[in-house]
Amino acid sequence: MRVAGMTALALGLAAMLAACNGEGLDQRDTPVERAAAGVVLGGALGAGIGAAIAINPALGAAIGGASGALIGATAGILSAQPGGGYRPIPPAAGAAIPSFYDSWPPGSHPPPAGTSVPPPTAGSG
């Protein structure tokens, strides 16, 4: 149970760290850059967790580093921003629904400027 929990936390952390950018949408951000960051972060995280939970820390670090790098690269590629292959939408020349508000009944407008609510009566409070 402890190994499964640590593995799930490691996978989640690797996916979150590979998806971190902080700059918003960047068209120059490529999947290769994300994969490189994922390999480094996933390899380091996998080696650390592998050394911490394995019986033989050296073997755990080697196996964890390799599998962490693979998982980190996959998470980095999957979290890359899609390309901006869209065209701008021109604004409409006229109103979408002409004279829509003209058919509203009287009284559906704000009160005139300078009006106020009458003061409360003596027994209302």
Summarize the structure.
50% of the residues lie in helices and 0% in strands.
Question: Mind explaining what this structure looks like?
Answer:
The chain has 125 residues and is mainly α. The protein has a domain at 2-78. The protein has three helices and no strands. It has helices spanning 2-19, 31-53, 57-78. The longest helix has 23 residues, at 31-53. It starts with a helix and ends in a 47-residue tail after the last helix. The model has no long low-confidence stretch (mean pLDDT 76).
Q: How would you spell out the order of helices and strands?
A: HHH
Global geometry: elongated
Average pLDDT level: 76
Weakly predicted, low-confidence segments: none
Q: What structural class do you assign from the helix and strand content? A: mainly alpha
Question: In percent, how helical is the residue content?
Answer: 40-55%
How much is the radius of gyration in Å?
30 Å
Strand content: under 5%
Number of strands: 0
Tally of helical runs: 3
Tags for this entry?
single chain; about 120 residues; 3 helices; about 0% strand
Describe how the helices and strands are arranged.
Blueprint (H helix, E strand, L loop, with lengths): L1 H18 L11 H23 L3 H22 L47
